UniProtKB/TrEMBL annotation:
Catalyzes the 2'-O-methylation of the ribose of cytidine 1402 (C1402) in 16S rRNA. The keyword rRNA processing applies. It comes from Candidatus Shapirobacteria bacterium CG10_big_fil_rev_8_21_14_0_10_48_15. Belongs to the methyltransferase superfamily. RsmI family. The keyword Manganese does not apply. It catalyses: cytidine(1402) in 16S rRNA + S-adenosyl-L-methionine = 2'-O-methylcytidine(1402) in 16S rRNA + S-adenosyl-L-homocysteine + H(+). GO terms for cellular component: cytoplasm. This is Ribosomal RNA small subunit methyltransferase I. It is found in: Cytoplasm. Its EC number is 2.1.1.198. Its main location: cytoplasm. Residues 3-201 form the Tetrapyrrole methylase domain. PROSITE patterns: RSMI (PS01296). SUPFAM superfamilies: Tetrapyrrole methylase.
């Protein structure tokens, strides 16, 4: 039976694409991806052959699943990629994996870049116990509830957009006080930045310098 490959792609630096990932993307019949234009450009920049691309994102995930399962059962090899990083991490795909597992279709992970783990290992925070939260709720009330539910003695990893970073930091300061935070921006890219500082210092910096790029926010709560 054909396999579903979960292929990690670079989060910024093309050199982070693994040799195995290139081999898999070269060999499969179909690539399911969030953005066909972006994935097509990635294949081109890596010098890989053109492939049959299937759009696969949150809004069409449910409808696409039956189609992809059918193609796998028909003998087509399929790779799932996200726009950047490891598939299913704050991106669609886990439902497809569950469906494949339920129907005994082999699922093969092809490891590679992940913004969460990249930030964690460079943070200087404890790595023996961590919780990846993904994106916090957009609404302030739901975001506050989520923050108050976070465990202590655990390194917390959050993805945040530049448009909500200041709001999230301000709300965290109101709940947790003057904690230490680590903020990774544009990881692996030309303007990569990792800031390790008090939350008030982070707020002062980003109030003066408006946030730009993709952010990974980490902190470790000793107590609440």
């Amino acid at each position: 039976m054909s396999k579903l490959y979960l292929v990690s792609t670079p989060i910024g630096n093309l050199a982070d694409m693994t040799a195995r990932a290139k081999l898999v993307l070269s060999a499969v019949d179909i690539i399911a991806c969030e953005d066909t234009r972006r994935t097509g450009l990635l294949l081109q920049r890596l010098g890989l052959p053109k492939k049959s691309l299937r759009s696969f994102f949150e809004a069409n995930e449910q409808g696409r699943m039956a189609e992809i399962i059918g193609e796998l059962k028909a003998g087509q090899e399929v790779a799932l990629v996200s726009n950047a990083g490891t598939p299913t991490i704050s991106d669609p795909g886990y439902k497809l994996v569950r469906a494949c597992v339920a129907q005994q279709i082999p699922v093969v992970p092809v490891p590679g870049a992940s913004a969460a783990l990249t930030a964690l290992v460079a943070s200087g925070l404890p790595t023996d116990r961590f919780l990846f939260v993904g994106f916090l709720p957009k609404k302030p009330g739901k975001r506050e509830k989520k923050l108050r539910q976070l465990p202590v003695k655990t390194t917390i990893i959050i993805y945040e957009s530049p448009f909500r970073l200041l709001k999230t930091l301000s709300q965290m300061q109101a709940i947790f006080g003057e904690i230490e935070v680590v903020i990774g921006r544009e990881l692996t890219k030309l303007h990569e930045e990792i800031r390790r500082e008090k939350i008030s210092q982070a707020l002062a910096h980003f109030e003066k310098t408006p946030p730009k790029g993709e952010f990974t926010l980490l902190f470790h709560l000793a107590k609440v």
